[in-house]
């Protein structure tokens, strides 16, 4: 099965989740950068992760999603961190569904440290354990 993990993380919170997912599935997580990403073969399951920045997903994540081809991406699983607003997962899910791509499960979201004192020490080991379980469940729901 062809599984990919892409994420954006300004603070390292979402990166922690991405690495936990990738380690669980024995693949590599890749951070979204300036360069457009294209896929040379169909992806059975694409994990997309981000945090919430001023009420929305980062522009790199939005641009990445805008360029996704429903013919190349069969399924998506979403993970995200937040400081105060937990809607980021729902927002990304809507963007994916608007592209005509199947979202395999509800988004996984958890607190992430924001500023200095908000949600300190998150994502924590409990959050990482939950995202590992989420990754296994999402992979199990993919049609092979």
Describe the fold and architecture.
- This protein is an alpha/beta fold.
- It has a single domain (3-140), classed as Rossmann fold.
- The chain has helices at 13-25, 59-66, 88-98, 125-140; strands spanning 3-7, 29-31, 45-51, 75-82, 102-103, 108-111.
- Strand 4, helix 3 and strand 5 (102-103) form a beta-alpha-beta unit.
- Helix 1 packs across helix 4.
- It starts with a strand and ends with a helix.
- The relative contact order is 0.21.
- The model has no long low-confidence stretch (mean pLDDT 92).
- Pfam families: Flavodoxin_3 (PF12641).
- This is Flavodoxin.
- One of its GO terms (molecular function) is FMN binding.
* Outline type: globular
**Alpha-beta classification:** alpha/beta
Question: Class, according to the CATH hierarchy?
Answer: Alpha Beta
Number of E-type strands: 6
**CATH 2nd-level architecture:** 3-Layer(aba) Sandwich
Instruction: Report the helical percentage.
Output: 25-40%
The tally of helices reads: 4
Mean pLDDT: 92
Give the DSSP E fraction (strand runs of 2 or more residues): 15-25%
The sequence of SSEs as H and E is EHEEHEHEEH
Largest sheet: 6 strands, parallel
Could you say how many structural domains there are in total?
A: 1
Rg of Cα set: 14 Å
| Quaternary state of the chains | single chain
N→C terminal distance: 7 Å
Pfam families: Flavodoxin_3
InterPro entries: Flavodoxin/NO_synth, Flavodoxin_CS, Flavoprotein-like_sf
GO molecular function, one term: oxidoreductase activity, acting on NAD(P)H
Protein name: Flavodoxin
